[in-house]
Design the sequence.
């Protein structure tokens, strides 16, 4: 297998699981995150085979760094088949330090942190991989969304806004890149637990009375990356009804 995937947010719960799934499927994987420290261990584990991995510390808010990651990937592995844009940030659980806030309590700094990471960061990643993918006339861009972008949620104003914005970003990218055979989609993963999370409400809301497995989401990423005829779509991997 000479297929190459870049996974951002690979130090996180979903990103790591997605990176491992691509490795298990034999991909060469660039495992990237703002947090460099967990990446070496993840790359070493994927390098046990059948896939290969290299760690790459990058802040997706920094376009020059994202561009360098893409250039280094092309220099080493000659192509990029998949961008799994998983890296993301919220106030509260995802940030680890900040508290979730009502919209009217958000400071400009709170707002910019979330919007710049989720929306601008994903834009940077798409912009950086588009060139090589256009040359190849092939590629998959899979954007990590959230159902909060569809439904909204109290105390998730910046997060929900950023995730709703990703739907628009995906649609424009899918429209503009389709003629180069680049597929662009959003995956909303449902509720995936972090160690210590309280998920009683999520289980109650679920038709199946459970939360989502990160592995099931990751397997879907690999399957979608093998599809030739699907673009411009939003996939809800969930067991809650939400329109
Ligand atoms: N866990 C869930 O229930 C859930 C539900 C819906 C959507 N999501 C989305 O899935 C993605 C991953 O979430 P997770 O649950 O694995 O959380 P996580 O906190 O474990 O992972 C997020 C990762 O993104 C990285 N990151 C943050 N800012 C970054 C930046 N500027 N540059 C590069 N990397 C950065 C973090 O370091 C972290 O490793 C996020 O986009 C999140 O919005 C998660």
Sequence:
């Amino acid at each position: 297998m000479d297929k190459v995937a870049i996974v951002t947010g690979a130090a996180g719960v979903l990103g790591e699981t997605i990176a491992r799934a691509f490795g298990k499927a034999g991909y060469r994987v660039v495992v990237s995150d703002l947090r460099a420290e967990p990446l070496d261990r993840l790359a070493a584990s994927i390098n046990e085979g059948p896939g290969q991995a290299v760690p790459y510390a990058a802040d997706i808010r920094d376009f020059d760094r994202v561009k360098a990651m893409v250039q280094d990937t092309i220099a080493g592995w000659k192509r990029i088949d998949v961008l799994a844009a998983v890296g993301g940030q919220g106030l509260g659980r995802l940030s680890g330090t900040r508290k979730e806030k009502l919209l009217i309590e958000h400071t400009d700094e709170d707002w910019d942190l979330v919007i710049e990471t989720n929306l601008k960061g994903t834009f940077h990643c798409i912009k950086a991989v588009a060139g090589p993918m256009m040359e190849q006339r092939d590629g998959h861009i899979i954007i990590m969304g959230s159902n909060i972008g569809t439904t909204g949620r109290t105390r998730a104003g910046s997060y929900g806004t950023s995730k709703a914005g990703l739907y628009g970003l995906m649609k424009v990218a899918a429209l503009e890149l389709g003629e180069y055979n680049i597929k662009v989609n959003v995956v909303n993963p449902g509720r995936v637990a972090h160690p210590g999370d309280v998920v009683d409400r999520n289980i109650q809301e679920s038709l199946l009375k459970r939360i989502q497995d990160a592995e099931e989401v990751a397997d879907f990423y690999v399957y979608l990356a093998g599809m030739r005829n699907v673009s411009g779509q939003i996939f809800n991997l969930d067991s809650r009804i939400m329109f």
